[in-house]
């Protein structure tokens, strides 16, 4: 019996240290089916999402989902500590009554109590070691617990730093592609002089964002459970909208350089597929079609009316369908797992956007203050800057 307790205690301690090392410290994908972290998220996420999905109010439902990410990190740390306490308690028990207890008869409960007090460096006075081996193990456990908690908690700023960098770009996308972001809005808002260069620059930024998402969220998959600040935003909807936009630029839009769209598409799809594999999810090719033929015709008309030069050959819709098959099944799998809805291809209902009001005010300002405006005087020309003491830069 004591041999079994010794083996179980060693397995618990080594298992926790290795699991925490893979989950937090190693900057690459963790492997192993029976990892404690993986079993923890399987056991907690499904019941949590099952209950939260039944909340009717979207804002309250999203708020409940947002609690899971930070709370799971705290509970995971508590689970690691609890398993380590049990592991050292089993080792103490295997030595054979190494402690005195002033309150209760010595036994397995005393071993667990001393183990917990030692791991958290409390230094109990009502129980203590009676065996040299127990004293040495207490010193070892105290040092292990102190170093373990310090290292793990020291990585919390790293996790929140990665989360913050992710959310900054998602927030910036709101003014460029709507909320939730859609490919149609992103293209429609880039119909202006110099739009091709601006759109290419945006795709370069999102190519890098996708690479950073891939690196950080494969190293720390628990970040995928951290929700965005607003109800209609998420890292998955942003990533999918960029893939939708890149697909349109590659398959059916004229007048834009498609090379950068191809690079961004490849990087974003890489991140999407790899994250699906991290959570051992299978693609969902049979999910409801996000863009049926009638919706495609509506999208085509919307973009044409918005000033986007669409390809007019009969194969444009087929090319877009082929592009969608390369990423939509994986996006649908992640959407079902995380309860994050995928964005539509264009807004389902029209609403007044702040960017339109700002654009109209800017147009009025340019009409009222033309750059080369001048006023003819008696035999010479007076510029607006000469006639006014104050001027404004637009």
Question: How would you sum up this structure, described in words?
Answer:
With 394 residues, the protein is mainly alpha-helical. It has two domains: 2-154, no CATH class; 172-338, no CATH class. It is built from 15 helices and four strands. The strands form two sheets. It has a two-stranded antiparallel ribbon. A two-stranded antiparallel sheet has the order 3-4. A hairpin with a 4-residue loop joins β3 (374-376) and β4. α3 (58-95) packs across α4 (108-119), α3 runs antiparallel to α5 (132-154) and α8 (195-219) runs parallel beside α10. The radius of gyration is 30 Å and the shape is elongated. 32% of the residues are buried.
Strands, helices and their partners?
Blueprint: H1 2-25, H2 36-52, H3 58-95, E1 99-101, H4 108-119, E2 127-129, H5 132-154, H6 156-177, H7 183-188, H8 195-219, H9 235-251, H10 258-278, H11 293-305, H12 316-324, H13 328-338, H14 354-368, E3 374-376, E4 381-383, H15 384-387
Antiparallel strand pairs: 1-2, 3-4
Helix pairs in contact: 1-3, 2-3, 3-4, 3-5, 4-5, 8-10, 9-10, 9-12, 10-13
């Amino acid at each position: 019996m004591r041999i079994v307790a010794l083996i179980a205690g060693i397995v618990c301690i080594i298992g926790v240290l290795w699991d925490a090392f893979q989950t937090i410290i190693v900057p690459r994908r963790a492997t192993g089916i029976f990892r404690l972290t993986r079993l923890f998220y399987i056991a907690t996420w499904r019941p949590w999402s099952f209950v939260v999905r039944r909340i009717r109010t979207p804002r309250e439902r999203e708020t409940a989902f947002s609690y899971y990410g930070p709370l799971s990190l705290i509970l995971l740390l508590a689970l690691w500590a609890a398993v380590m306490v049990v592991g050292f308690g089993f080792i103490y028990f295997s030595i054979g009554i190494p402690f005195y207890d002033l309150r209760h008869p010595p036994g397995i409960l005393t071993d667990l109590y001393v183990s917990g007090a030692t791991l958290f460096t409390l230094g109990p006075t009502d129980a203590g070691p009676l065996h040299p081996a127990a004293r040495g193990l207490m010193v070892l456990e105290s040092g292990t617990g102190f170093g373990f908690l310090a290292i793990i908690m020291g990585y919390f700023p790293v996790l929140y730093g990665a989360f913050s960098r992710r959310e900054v770009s998602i927030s910036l996308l709101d003014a460029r592609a709507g909320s939730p972001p859609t490919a149609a809005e992103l293209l429609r808002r880039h119909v202006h002089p110099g739009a091709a260069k601006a759109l290419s620059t945006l795709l370069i930024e999102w190519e890098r964002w996708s690479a950073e998402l891939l690196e950080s969220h494969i190293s720390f998959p628990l970040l995928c459970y951290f929700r965005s600040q607003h109800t209609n935003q998420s890292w998955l909807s942003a990533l999918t909208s960029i893939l939708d936009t890149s697909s349109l630029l590659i398959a059916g839009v004229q007048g834009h350089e498609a090379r950068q769209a191809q690079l961004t598409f490849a990087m974003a799809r890489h991140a999407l597929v790899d994250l699906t594999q991290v959570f051992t999810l299978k693609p969902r090719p049979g999910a409801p079609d996000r863009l049926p033929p009638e919706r495609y015709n509506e999208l085509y008309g919307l973009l044409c009316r918005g000033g986007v030069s669409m390809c007019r050959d009969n194969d444009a819709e087929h090319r877009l369908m082929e592009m969608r098959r390369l990423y939509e099944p994986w996006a649908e799998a992640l959407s079902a797992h995380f309860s994050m809805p995928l964005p539509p291809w264009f807004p389902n209902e029209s609403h007044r956007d702040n960017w339109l009001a700002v654009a109209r005010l800017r147009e009025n300002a340019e009409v009222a203050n033309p750059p080369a405006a001048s006023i003819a005087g008696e035999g010479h020309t007076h510029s607006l800057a000469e006639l006014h003491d104050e001027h404004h830069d637009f």
